Amino acid sequence: MEILEAFASYEREALAAIDAAASADALEAARIEFLGKKQGRLKDVQGLLGKASPEERPVVGKRFNEIKDAVTLRWETRQQELCRPKAMATAIDLTLPGTPVRLGRRHPLTQTIDEFKDIMARFGFEVADGPELEDEWHNFQALNIPDDHPARDPLENFYLSTASTANAEPMLLRSQTSTVQIRIMEQRQPPIRIVSVGRVYRPDTIDATHSCMFHQMEGLMLGRDVTMASLKSVLRMFATAYLGGDVEVRFRPSFFPFTEPSVEVDVRWKHGWLELGGAGMVDPNELTAIGYDPEEVSGFAFGLGIERFCMLRHGISDIRNFYSNDLRFLGQF
Ligand code: PHE
Question: Against a cut of 0.85, is the pTM above it?
């Protein structure tokens, strides 16, 4: 039927013109051409309705409404599509230069800690964790630090008031990461190779090299035939990996209740020696107290100050820089 063919080509052309309209103006032109009320193509096809015979009329009338609705709907949809980016363009002026967003970065201590864990992982040490809030057993007793030892003086530690803890047992902010040695030995059997990095707390007077909170990395290696030589090798390889070059490590005799023998660890840096922390062979008393046989099991432990290492490598002269959150300082790493 001629009329239906005319409807179909009207519909095809109208939809194509609407789809092709790339601007509001082009879309408006399409509207006038294909949907205009007074004149235009819709009027023309509508005029064909009068030419239909009485039998054809219902079919043709229905079809006319369908194509009119289809074209109108497509036009409305296209208008919404064209409007959306326009609204955005007025909200954001795309011609302005981009806002420079300053990228954040990890704190220099966090960077150091991550690097330490990475280096130690290469030597087969896994990372262990322990709580910062400790009981006296893990912070002192189990480490062979007796009741009357000066390190247990309330003035040397941050004890919590017993009223603030649920149980009557005294609790304190740990003063060393050596607590983790005990926690690990309580849970595992040798061979053990762990490092534990975290915060420790001591009521020191704050100055360029002291803070009442700082970070330590504790290391513990237990097994058969672990010796002082193993300790020195691990520390030397560690210091070399972090500081670069072949770093010389020195042991000075010292004393810690939980290691025997005990040493202070120094590294040669530029023109002098720098103290990094304490170390030693795990005291047989400690091994026995945990339930290991000191004839079978031996091991070393060390505790290094993180801030020290980081200050050394980056030439930072005041420890307080780490905690003052000054972006001019932090942005340099
Ligand atoms: N815990 C000791 C300190 O804080 C360091 C240490 C760790 C010494 C392990 C020996 C073995 O000073």
Answer: no
